[in-house]
Amino acid sequence: MSRNNALEQVETYFQGGEFFTDLAALVAFETESQNPDQAPILGQYLTDAMVPRLEALGFECVLHKNPDAGGGPILTGARIEDPSLPTILTYGHGDVVLAQTEQWREGLRPFELMEQGDRLYGRGTADNKVQHLINLAALESVLAVRGRLGFNVKIVIEMSEEIGSPGLAEFMKANKDRLKSDVLIASDGPRLQPDRATMFMGARGGISFDLTLDLREGAHHSGNWGGLLADPAIILSHAIASICDARGQIQIPAWRPTSLTDDIRAAISELPVNDGNDPKVDDDWGEENLTPNERVYGWNSFAILAMTSGVPEAPVNAIAAKACATCQLRYVVGTKPEDILPALRRHLDQHGFQQVQIEQHERAFFPATRLDPANPWVKYVEDSLTRTSGQKPHILPNLAGSLPNDCFADILGLPTVWVPHSYLGCSQHAPNEHVLKAVCQDSLRLMAGLFWDIGTGAP
Ligand SMILES: [Zn+2]
Questions:
Q1: How many angstroms is it from 97 CA to the middle of ligand 1?
Q2: Rounded to whole angstroms, what are the CA distances from 40 to 73, 92, 97, 124, 159?
Q3: Distance 435 CA to ligand 1 centre (A)
Q4: What are the Cα distances from residue 265, in Å, to 64, 154, 190, 205, 291?
Q5: How far apart (Å, rounded) are the C-alpha atoms in residues 351 and 325?
Q6: Does residue 42 contact residue 95 with C-beta atoms inside 8 Å?
Q7: 402 C-alpha vs ligand 1 centroid, how far in Å?
Q8: Neighbouring C-beta atoms of residue 364, cutoff 10 Å
Q9: Do residues 223 and 166 lie in contact, with contact meaning Cβ atoms separated by under 8 Å?
Q10: Cα of 126 to ligand 1 centre, how many Å?
């Protein structure tokens, strides 16, 4: 029995239509974690879809109540062949964002998997149902061909990722022993290009906060008082202008990362430039001496998510009392998260903006993570993916967006390697979410090859 047999096995799984049937069954669960009415479905996804499949694969499963009352249930499973073998941890989330049913293209229904041309449409296909389905199917194929995996595997499936993974970090801290493993290999997010595998080893962090300037009680007539009363919107705009310049370059020294080393630069330089995708990248935006890919994968970015003063829908002739901007910093490792807001405070004070208040948002904080590109697991996965597909994968030091990778990297202390099975145009979090059949088929082969290889010896 050979590696090729395992690849043929997943190929048959895809070609024979079983893959479609399985994905359709997962998509049919209306697991909108943002919709409290669907709370019972979150548990059903685990008990009715995941547990039977995992048990058939030889996992022992445990369902856990989320330690945070705002979070859905969490499933863990373990399949131990021999405690002396390496243990892989994998992860998925079964919840999806709101269906947005009315906005889907004519003929498409979010919870009914629909094949059209080279695409499979359905809410949660790309994010994240196809991703954990592919990994489970690849494990099944290796097991079917070899009769054993050759390694141990553990799994965590959460049902609250789309509401910020409440309770997940706490759960991980309380279940370190249960989840003890050698590496995390999991899937979420898009490939950089559909016809080539992508690996990423961490994520940018993010922190959101309000900047508020509240000067007085109520608005005052702009004729009678204009020139006499300070305008909060103007002052807040200047405060923001002190944070970053007119092309978005960050001016706060502590917000400028020191982690863009030659290694990371070299890794980023091999990535394709976002070409042809909408919208077009603004070449004259962001840190001047960096390439666009360095700006998004290797640097921090500051954004104003929303901004108000007065009543924008119905302006009146008055000096507003208050101005507010909701801001966000996306940051890479090498930025001290605990100093992000204190550094901002110091900076605003130094520039005369002592009156501007900073208030951090609850549940909008993600730590940044990044695995050293020299970690042996990176090379190992890269070699395996290259062997299966005949081409080197794109390797991102970290995803530009965020995901709860700190739970694995920091709390469990694992090297983390993510192999995404979707693509940039998949409309995740939007109407008409879909996956590409060709990417699914390729990913099934890549993962079967990878799990086959790990069974012959880990790094
Ligand atoms: Zn998502």
A1: 7
A2: 10, 19, 16, 17, 11
A3: 14
A4: 42, 34, 21, 19, 10
A5: 18
A6: yes
A7: 10
A8: 15
A9: no
A10: 9
DSSP H helices, 270-369, are 292-297, 340-350
Helix axes 437-454, 130-146, angle to 10 degrees: 50
d(CA 448, CA 443): 8
Cα(199) to ligand 1 centroid in Å equals: 18
The CA distance from 171 to 88, in Å, is 19
CA 133 to ligand 1 centroid distance, Å: 16
d(CA 210, CA 223): 30
User: Which segments within 35-151 are labelled E, that is strand?
Assistant: 60-64, 74-79, 87-93, 114-116, 119-121
- From the CA of 106, how far away is ligand 1's center (Å)? 23
pLDDT at 277 over 90: no
Q: What is the per-residue pLDDT across 26-40, written as a single tens digit (0 to 9) for each?
A: 999 999 999 999 999
Alpha carbon of 124 to ligand 1 centroid (Å): 8
Distance 99 CA to ligand 1 centre (A): 12
Residue 356 Cα to ligand 1 midpoint, Å, equals 33
Ligand 1 is a single-atom ion; what residues have CB below 5 A from it? 127
Q: Which residues pair with 186 in a beta bridge?
A: 418
Q: How far is ligand 1, taken at its centre, from the CA of residue 191, in Å?
A: 15
Long-range contacts of 318-321 (CB under 8 A, 24+ apart): 318/219, 318/220, 318/221, 318/222, 319/219, 319/220, 319/221, 319/222, 319/225, 319/226, 319/229, 319/231, 320/219, 320/231, 320/232, 320/233, 321/214, 321/215, 321/216, 321/217, 321/218, 321/219, 321/220, 321/232
pLDDT digits (tens, 9 = 90+) for 279-334: 788 999 999 999 999 999 999 999 999 999 999 999 999 999 999 999 999 999 99
Q: How confident is the model at residue 263 (pLDDT cuts 50, 70, 90)?
A: confident
Under the banding of pLDDT at 50, 70 and 90, the label for residue 276 is low
Using alpha carbons only, give the angle 164, 168, 174 rounded to the nearest 5 degrees.
160
The enclosing H or E element of 418 equals strand 416-418
Rounded Cα gap, residues 198 and 419, in angstroms:
6
Q: 3-state DSSP call for residue 27? A: helix
Distances (CA, A) of 248 to 70, 295, 299, 301: 36, 11, 12, 8
Structure tokens at 156: 């965590």
Q: In angstroms, what is the span from residue 188 Cα to ligand 1's centroid?
A: 8
DSSP 122-154: -TTIIIIIHHHHHHHHHHHHHHHHHSS-SSEEE
What tokens does 127 get?
Answer: 């994010």
Q: Tokens 């790094």, residue?
A: 459
Find the 400 Cα to ligand 1 centroid distance in Å. Answer: 14
